[in-house]
Amino acid sequence: MIETTSSGVLVAPAALRAAVRAIIECGGSGEREAALVAEQLVEANLTGHDSHGVGMVPRYVEALAEGGLRVNQQLRVVTDAGALLMLDGNCGYGQVMAFEAMDLGIERATAHGVAVVGLANSHHVGRIGHWAEQCAAAGLVSIHFVNVISRPVVAPFGGRDARFVTNPFCVGIPMPNGEPFLLDFATSRIAMGKVRVAFNKGEQVKPDTLLDARGEPTCDPAALFADPGGAILAFGEHKGYGMAVACEILGGALAGGLTLHDRPSHSAIINNMLTFIVDPRRLGTADRLAQEAMAFADWVRASPPMAGVDHVRLAGDPEREWRAARAAAIPIDSTTWQQIVDAGEQLGLSSAELLRIAAPRPLAAVAGPPQDSGVPPRAARA
Ligand code: NAD
Known about the structure:
By secondary structure, the chain is α+β, with helices and mostly antiparallel strands. The chain has a single domain, classed as Ribosomal Protein S8, Chain: A, domain 1 (2-Layer Sandwich), CATH 3.30.1370. 39% of the residues lie in helices and 20% in strands. It has helices at 13-26, 31-46, 57-66, 94-112, 129-137, 192-201, 237-254, 280-283, 286-301, 317-325, 334-346, 351-358, 378-381, and strands at residues 5-11, 76-81, 84-88, 114-123, 141-149, 154-155, 168-173, 181-186, 210-211, 217-218, 231-233, 270-278, 330-333, 361-367. Helix 3 runs parallel beside helix 11 (334-346). The longest helix has 19 residues, at 94-112. The structure holds nicotinamide-adenine-dinucleotide. The site of nicotinamide-adenine-dinucleotide has 32 residues, from strand 5, strand 7, strand 8 and helix 10.
């Protein structure tokens, strides 16, 4: 567990959405596209996942310049067999492609009881929990396997170099109290974006997380940004590694996309996602699910907390705590903020205009979150 300190800015969520929207529109996107991108990136910050928040904007701008990310794309239906959908995202913004893919999946799962949705060839779909929340809001259970076609950054169990990316896995279960169980994680020990956040803040990461370019253990996030680069270890030893492979093959190939077997050097982040959506009402188990899931959640949350833990949580709880803590203002470290301002300028949005829209307040020092406790930092609660 690492306590972090950094300087930067505080931006109100609505102003941050407007600022991101303005940058994305300058990149050529229509209003709806820019709004969906801004909405999801700011939601990631609001839920405590800065790794998948507005700090991604500079990377998107780089991918736009290279042509690997395409604006204003339409989702293409490749296969439509009722409950089975194969969709292609045409390298368009994942925030649009995944939103529309889930919308279609929700419609089919509600009609047929179940839907299997393959979304191939979309640009970065960001925080996967966002898509599970979309399904849960419609009363549906969802399971998501995702792979990433980008520069490899994760080593296979027992290996010394990076062979795949951080392949996230996610399960969403709606709960009767409106607070879904939301398990959503990278299958690497930490998400690549969290290595970037640590690098930008000049911090070290926990031991047993990274390998340097020679395959030796290191705590220095710079190892991942060197050339040749190092690797992140898979989570959960051989078991987490196996899950990463399942995400690669199911999220990649079964969804109609590719798996990684070379070292692409482009800036685009292509995601493929295989989603299973189930309607418990059609299965006849909705009442049982609601009662048992809530009873189980209450049971585990009642476990006496260990020293240093305030209370036992269920997946999804930390994100809700973060959301409450950051409702008024989102802290952004100074390196990330400068990169966002530079990205705007690259697309022709002056820094003066961006600062007018975002109205950032200086943040002298913020106590960062213990990185894996899910507990919001004190300063961000203020
Ligand atoms: P993480 O390590 O922060 O784990 C998050 C999960 O653990 C959540 O489900 C959270 O509710 C749960 N959790 C956290 N603390 C808890 C506690 N104390 N008790 C119970 N549950 C707790 O997540 P991560 O691996 O850093 O992933 C961050 C985000 O990155 C995710 O949203 C993921 O979807 C996203 N991601 C996206 C891509 C992509 O290519 N699009 C790739 C990798 C990761």
